[in-house]
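User: Here's a structure from my thesis project, written as structure tokens. My advisor, Dr. K., wants to see whether a designed sequence matches the one we expressed. Can you design one independently, without my sequence as a hint?
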């Protein structure tokens, strides 16, 4: 009988129960014990759901209160010294301090850096290590959660981030070699594996997604040393689990490691099956990742079944496992909760629970069960329905895309000429201040939106409410002295969903939540067809906000690459073509904003780097169409209209030329958690345009002092020309409260004034 398994399950809950519990705990409304009980309830529910869906060996230790990389660092006692006293006194408070910072009871701690998990929109906390780092087991989370499932009568496979991937994802604060720490780390892994074996675990899943990256010789050698060492001691069987792409030139390495099973992402790399089978040692399990863990379209089961049948002939029925391509963390929990989706569109989709069902169908078909025939027929009918649907393709979109010329992706003048025109038009002071866009989405704002959607508040009443909130935001910014204002985005539910709701070709779910980081969840739109902008999307609110003030008002848009990356994207055409369609829709919006009197327009692209293929050889092709898409959206305006873009949590060194090629007039970036380290790329490259290095971290409730912000700006001023520097937060303020926002922005403006005064004195 073919064994079915899963590599990980969404932990937030179908109705975001984990999010609500976390935020209640942080507000002091839910005790630590009550928070942990919520975690236990969610784990039990998810293990039972997977068992009932026909999964033979579900995972455990895939649940986290915040982030699995942070869990690993905490488990192995890789806690930076500044957090240790708090972590020793109150482990849960210390854990959350690493994630969010801590500022009370006389303790003031910054959060760890946060960045993207490979090429996904999930964020992880970056562990901080140093030469001579000591590791030790701290607690027993993997063992405890395995035993928790066992007590429910469910045998699971504990999941661990592998030692090489853990070091790869970490940073050393002293610049030392991460992989030099491997020999210190491996005994702790060995100790944990021995404990899991003693607890009764038969298998352990060792996640090593770094195996799909370009690996330097020292990383390859680290793999050999690591798994040779782990093979020596008592341990359960090990399933080595790379995903997110092809093994490529690491295939020989992966196949040679002394483990008991190897997972293969056959969604992203189906062409690699033959080569893996040729090199897989006899008797080793092959975990075939045949169902897409990254997108929400139904699996083409006939194609997957062909791969599965061939693999079975090569390894044998008892050595083939069927699985998703990766953890299902990246998709919503259950399609059955979507009552409002149109039936045809809903029939094309598959969320986490449905994906488990697809795996079960594949296993039943392999094992010759009659029940599989009807399921396969149904899947074929749904796939054909989507292909034939007139809702998917629009000839006028294809015609417009075909007519695009290179000149449409070029501003009229080069940056130096545009800068002069913009200085004359805007009249901004040195070190101009602005924010990234959104202001706090308070309970009052969310309740008004909910009442409007449920028709308990009519359109006139909702508009009046939004106008009042916008005016309050504008007056506040004027009062404290912000130079380039924003309208606050109170009408927007999400920076991607809001635009998708106004574009043809998009669909939306009610409960399709996916974890982005911690308690932050997003509900990605579904791009199912050609993209068209039927009417202006943001002009009404930008025009209204500008009418309230003489200061420049920024028009706020989400860029084409980010709309693409943060949606579930159609898989029936090239992503580049979908991105260009979005770019043309945004181009129309940009020109309409300019015509409405908006002189500064920000087109956010925080996902530009996230979209990079994991292999460097594929970067150029992606960056060509990604940069072209941004320029296509931005280049229809006059020289005096200033185009901003925003990027967060990105390492820019290796793509700085592409960032410059976007030809934005101003770029704002995240730099506060890294203490301005990310500026290095812009300095070495001599980036020519304006730069707003974020001076405080909005993802943490911690409020920095004015002197901290001045210190960060001094670091920026040491390496950038004064006329380049803008002063702004790291990101939008949507998730923060008004009291902390007021204080932080007042201090930010004061920091800019201090720099202006110093500059005036020097002159």
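Assistant: Designed independently from the structure alone:
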């Amino acid at each position: 009988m073919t064994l079915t398994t899963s590599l990980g399950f969404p932990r937030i809950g179908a109705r975001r129960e984990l999010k609500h519990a976390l935020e209640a705990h942080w507000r002091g409304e839910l005790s630590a014990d009550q928070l942990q009980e919520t975690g236990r309830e969610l784990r039990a529910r998810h293990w039972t759901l997977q068992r009932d869906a026909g999964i033979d060996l579900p995972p455990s230790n895939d649940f986290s209160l915040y982030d699995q990389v942070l869990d690993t660092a905490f488990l192995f006692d890789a806690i930076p010294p500044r957090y240790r006293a708090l972590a020793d006194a109150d482990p849960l408070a210390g854990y959350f301090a690493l994630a969010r910072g801590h500022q009370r009871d006389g303790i003031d701690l910054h959060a760890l850096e946060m960045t993207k998990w490979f090429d996904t929109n999930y964020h992880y906390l970056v562990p901080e290590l140093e030469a001579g780092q000591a590791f030790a087991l701290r607690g027993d989370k993997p063992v405890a959660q395995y035993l928790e499932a066992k007590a429910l009568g469910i045998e699971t496979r504990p999941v661990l981030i592998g030692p090489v991937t853990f070091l790869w994802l970490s940073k050393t604060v002293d610049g030392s070699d991460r992989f030099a720490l491997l020999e210190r780390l491996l005994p702790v892994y060995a100790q944990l594996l021995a404990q899991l074996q003693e607890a009764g675990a038969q298998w352990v899943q060792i996640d090593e997604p770094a195996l799909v990256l370009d690996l330097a010789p020292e990383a390859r050698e680290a793999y050999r040393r690591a798994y040779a060492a782990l093979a020596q001691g008592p341990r359960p069987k090990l399933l080595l689990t790379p995903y997110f792409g092809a093994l490529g030139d690491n295939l020989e390495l992966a196949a040679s490691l002394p483990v008991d099973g190897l997972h293969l992402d056959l969604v992203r790399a189906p062409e690699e099956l033959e080569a893996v089978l040729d090199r897989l040692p006899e008797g080793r399990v092959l975990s075939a990742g045949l169902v897409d863990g990254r997108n929400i379209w139904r699996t083409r089961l006939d194609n997957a079944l062909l791969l599965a049948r061939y693999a079975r002939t090569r390894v044998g029925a008892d050595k083939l496992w069927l699985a998703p391509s990766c953890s299902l963390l990246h998709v919503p929990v259950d399609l059955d909760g979507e009552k409002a989706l149109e039936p045809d569109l809903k029939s094309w989709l598959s969320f986490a629970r449905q994906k488990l069902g697809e795996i079960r169908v594949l296993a039943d078909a392999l094992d010759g069960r009659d029940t599989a025939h009807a399921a396969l027929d149904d899947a074929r009918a749904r796939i054909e329905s989507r292909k034939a649907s007139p809702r998917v393709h629009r000839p006028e979109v294809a015609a417009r895309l075909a007519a695009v010329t290179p000149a449409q992706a070029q501003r009229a003048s080069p940056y130096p000429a545009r800068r002069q025109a913009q200085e004359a038009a805007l009249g901004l002071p040195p070190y101009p201040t602005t924010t990234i866009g959104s202001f706090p989405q308070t309970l009052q704002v969310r309740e008004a939106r909910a009442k409007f959607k449920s028709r308990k508040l009519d359109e006139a009443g909702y508009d009046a409410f939004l106008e009042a909130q916008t005016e309050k935001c504008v007056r506040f910014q004027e009062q404290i002295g912000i130079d380039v204002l924003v309208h606050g985005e109170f009408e927007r539910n999400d920076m991607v969903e809001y635009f998708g709701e106004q574009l043809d070709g998009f669909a939306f779910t009610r409960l399709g939540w996916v974890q982005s980081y911690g308690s932050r969840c997003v509900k990605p739109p579904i791009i199912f067809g050609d993209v068209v902008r039927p009417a202006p999307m943001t002009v009404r609110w930008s025009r209204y906000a500008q009418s309230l003030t003489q200061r420049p008002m920024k028009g706020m848009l989400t860029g084409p690459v980010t709309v693409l990356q943060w949606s579930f994207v159609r898989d029936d055409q090239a992503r580049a073509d979908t991105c260009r369609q979005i770019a043309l829709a945004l181009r129309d919006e940009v020109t309409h904003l300019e015509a409405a009197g908006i002189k500064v327009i920000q087109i956010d692209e925080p996902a530009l780097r996230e979209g990079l293929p994991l292999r460097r050889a594929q970067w150029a092709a992606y960056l060509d169409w990604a940069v072209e898409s941004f320029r296509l959206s931005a280049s229809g305006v006059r020289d005096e209209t200033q185009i901003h873009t925003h990027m967060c949590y990105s390492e820019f060194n290796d793509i700085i030329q592409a960032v410059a090629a976007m030809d934005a007039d101003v770029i704002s970036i995240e730099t506060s958690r890294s203490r301005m380290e990310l500026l290095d790329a812009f300095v070495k490259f001599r980036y020519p345009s304006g730069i707003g290095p974020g001076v405080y971290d909005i993802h943490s409730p911690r409020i920095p002092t004015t002197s901290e912000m001045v210190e960060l700006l001094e670091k920026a001023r040491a390496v950038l020309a004064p006329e380049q520097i803008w002063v702004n937060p790291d990101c939008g303020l949507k998730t923060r409260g008004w009291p902390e926002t007021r204080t932080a922005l007042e201090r930010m403006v004061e920091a800019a004034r201090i720099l202006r005064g110093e500059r005036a004195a020097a002159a």
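When you compare it with your expressed construct, this may help: The first strand starts at residue 3 and ends at 4.
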